[in-house]
From TrEMBL:
Superkingdom of the source species: Eukaryota
SMART domains recorded: HAT (SM00386)
Gene field: Crnkl1
Localisation: Nucleus speckle
UniProt record, GO biological process: spliceosomal complex assembly
Known role: Involved in pre-mRNA splicing process. As a component of the minor spliceosome, involved in the splicing of U12-type introns in pre-mRNAs.
Family affiliation: Belongs to the crooked-neck family.
Main location: nucleus
Keywords, ordered alphabetically: mRNA processing, mRNA splicing, Nucleus, Phosphoprotein, Repeat, Spliceosome
Protein name: Crooked neck-like protein 1
Organism: Callaeas wilsoni
Any one of the GO CC terms: post-mRNA release spliceosomal complex
Signal peptide: none
Length: 681
């Protein structure tokens, strides 16, 4: 094999030639253009026949090479047609149809050739063959009917339409037939076409669209057959039923009635449709209804539209989440304001049927108000006492009393029975709360009996209440106050004694204060002092000492000041061991206030010596994990008794004084001019 030539100089050429330059030069030189053939002029018949022979031979050769290319056949036939050789052109079209009879263009060119040459019967023959061979090609039918109509053969065109309709074509074909009849003022025939082909033929099954019914109705309306148009709309509504409702049908029906000034019928149509069509599919319906009411309605009608729209919104919300009780409340508030009692009851029943799935009180707190509102509606709005009683009883049966209950339901039921003057039933209802007793129920029942002045019942209820909750100080106080009001002081005092003897109380300070106030009101000062002493045996709280001292100040007339000062002395001694220094400071402040008002100079000077010194300290903080969290400043109190007992505090005070003197001497050394000026001064 020959060796490949090696290029020695691989540097680019000095003159670069691009592809664009090559194309431009080829265009300028016209290298690819062939010279036109010479023009030939035919002067006699022999030359003409020779030309025809050569041309036909060319066409036949092209067809022989590829007989499936229909464009070659069409060119051949059109060339023969240009030479007025109609018979030869027919022969060529027939040969082409034998090759491909499904070619639509071939049939169209063939028929157009016959029509151009006024061969009407031949054209009819071709159209008949075309629609018989390819009945689903609508173009053949349109051309055929148009040709017959242009020839004035209306009956023939109608006959072609009838043949076409047997194949159940698309919608446009039916409307073309109807428009054809209307062009010749054949209204009855057009109606018969609608009746035959839209209502009672498979067209409704093939094209079950609302627009076909609307077009039929508008056709009747256009020709002033209003009764027929209304009947068409009614039959359309009946045909589609409630399962396949379409807002466009009802909008068109309502506009038709509006044009006929039948405003009540329009309202009925809109309301019927709005009650049955889902909200998301009725936006256009709402819009048209609102426009209608603004044009022809009153304020009440417009409000009805708004209410209907809001009802749809609430229906969608409660369908999406039946346990959305806030949506139910809004929905019920809407229907209560604008609908009859039957509808309101139906919505309430639907709402209360959505019981919370979990038996936990926090899930029932919103749900229980549905029952309360239902009962209040039946009592106040519907004036149905029997139904109200049934609502309360059904709610109380539904509640899981072994786990929790709602005291407000028992109390509301009892109050309802009292309003109905049925006191035994009210008491029976409140006695039933033993299934799940609660403080609120006891209080409500006792308050009810107090209003009825049944004091013996109140005593029994208080006894049951205190057996159930002996730690409730408020109940003890209320019971004692009841006995006080009734004038039985000994029973009240016995109740207080039982109360303070309980091992566990929720608010003992309130109970003791109430007992002390009770004795003060009865002017039993010795018993009050004994109570204070008993209380101080249990607690050494500073407020108890201050209250005791103030009592002594206000109780006696002659020995009140010495007694009060003695209480303060005892309190100060008792609180020396107290860790809370702020409480001791509070006591001394109260004592100083007493001395400022009633004491002498000696006693005032004595209390001033007892007052502590307030100093600032620092202490180290620790985080939860034990690491250092920095330092914290706080204030501490140094009492004079503590200073005498702790010599370290005296040493600390001397150190602070020495440090202060050192700072002053350093400042004087830094600024000697200041000392000279001071000496001169």
């Amino acid at each position: 094999l020959p060796l490949a030539l090696q290029v020695k100089n691989k540097a680019p050429a000095e003159v670069q030639i691009t592809a664009e330059q090559l194309l431009r030069e080829a265009k300028e030189r016209e290298l690819e253009l062939l010279p036109p053939p010479p023009q030939q002029k035919i002067t006699d018949v022999e030359e003409l026949n020779d030309y025809k022979l050569r041309k036909r031979k060319t066409f036949e050769d092209n067809i022989r090479k590829n007989r499936t290319v229909i464009s070659n056949w069409i060119k051949y036939a059109q060339w023969e047609e240009s030479l007025k050789e109609i018979q030869r052109a027919r022969s060529i079209y027939e040969r082409a149809l034998d090759v491909d009879y499904r070619n639509v263009t071939l049939w169209l060119k063939y028929a157009e050739m016959e029509m151009k040459n006024r061969q009407v019967n031949h054209a009819r023959n071709i159209w008949d063959r075309a629609i018989t061979t390819l009945p689903r090609v609508n173009q053949f039918w349109y051309k055929y009917t148009y040709m017959e109509e242009m020839l004035g053969n209306v009956a023939g065109s109608r006959q072609v339409f009838e043949r076409w309709m047997e194949w159940q074509p698309e919608e446009q074909a039916w409307h073309s037939y109807i428009n054809f009849e209307l062009r010749y003022k054949e209204v009855d025939r057009a109606r018969s076409i609608y009746e035959r082909y839209i209502l009672f033929t498979p067209l409704v099954l093939v094209h079950p669209d609302v627009k076909n019914w609307i077009k039929y109705a508008r056709f009747e309306e256009k020709h002033s057959y209003f009764a027929h148009a209304r009947k068409v709309y009614e039959r359309a509504v009946e045909f589609f039923g409630e399962e396949h409702m379409d807002e466009h049908l009802y909008v068109a029906f309502a506009k038709f009635e509006e044009n006929q000034k039948e405003f009540e019928r329009v309202r009925v149509i809109y309301k019927y449709a709005l009650d049955r069509i889902p909200k998301q599919d009725a936006q256009n319906l709402f819009k048209n209804y609102t426009i209608f009411e603004k044009k022809f309605g009153d304020r009440r009608g417009i409000e009805d539209i708004i209410v209907s729209k809001r009802r749809f919104q609430y229906e969608e919300e409660v369908k999406a989440n039946p346990h959305n009780y806030d949506a139910w409340f809004d929905y019920l508030r809407l229907v209560e304001s604008d609908t009859d009692a039957g509808t309101v009851r139906e919505v309430y029943e639907r709402a209360i049927a959505n019981v919370p799935p979990i038996q936990e009180k926090r899930h029932w707190k919103r749900y229980i108000y549905l029952w309360i509102n239902y009962a209040l509606y039946e009592e106040l709005e519907a004036k149905a006492s029997k139904r109200t009683r049934q609502v309360y009883q059904a709610c109380l049966e539904l509640l899981p009393h072994k786990k929790f209950t709602f005291a407000k339901m028992w109390l509301l039921y009892a109050q309802f029975e009292i309003r109905q003057k049925n006191l035994p039933l009210a008491r029976r209802a409140l006695v039933s709360f033993c299934k799940c007793p609660k403080n609120k129920l006891f209080k409500g029942y006792i308050e009810l009996e107090l209003q009825l002045r049944e004091f013996d019942r109140c005593r029994k209820l208080y006894e049951k209440f205190l057996e159930f909750a002996p730690e409730n100080c408020t109940s003890w106080i209320k019971f004692a106050e009841l006995e006080t009001i009734l004038g039985d002081i000994d029973r009240a005092r016995a109740i207080y004694e039982l109360a303070i003897g309980q091992p566990r109380l929720d608010m003992p300070e309130v109970l003791w204060k109430s007992y002390i106030d009770f004795e003060i009101e009865q002017e039993e000062y010795e018993k009050t002092r004994n109570l204070y002493r008993r209380l101080l045996q249990r607690t050494q709280h500073v407020k108890v000492w201050i209250s005791f001292a103030q009592f002594e100040l206000s109780a006696g007339r002659e020995e009140r000041l010495p007694r009060c000062r003695q209480i303060y002395e005892e309190a100060n001694k008792a609180m020396r061991s107290c860790e809370e220094k702020e409480e001791r400071v509070m006591l001394l402040e109260s004592w100083r206030g007493f001395e400022d008002e009633f004491g002498t100079d000696a006693t005032k000077e004595r209390i001033d010596k007892l007052m502590p010194e307030k100093i600032k300290k620092r202490r180290k903080l620790q985080a939860e994990d034990g690491s250092d969290a920095g330092w914290e400043e706080y204030y501490d109190y140094i009492f004079p008794e503590d200073t005498a007992n702790q010599p370290n505090l005296k040493l600390l005070a001397m150190a602070k004084l020495w440090k202060k003197q050192q700072q002053e001497s350093e400042a004087a050394a830094m600024d000697p001019d200041k000392d000279i000026d001071e000496s001169q001064t």
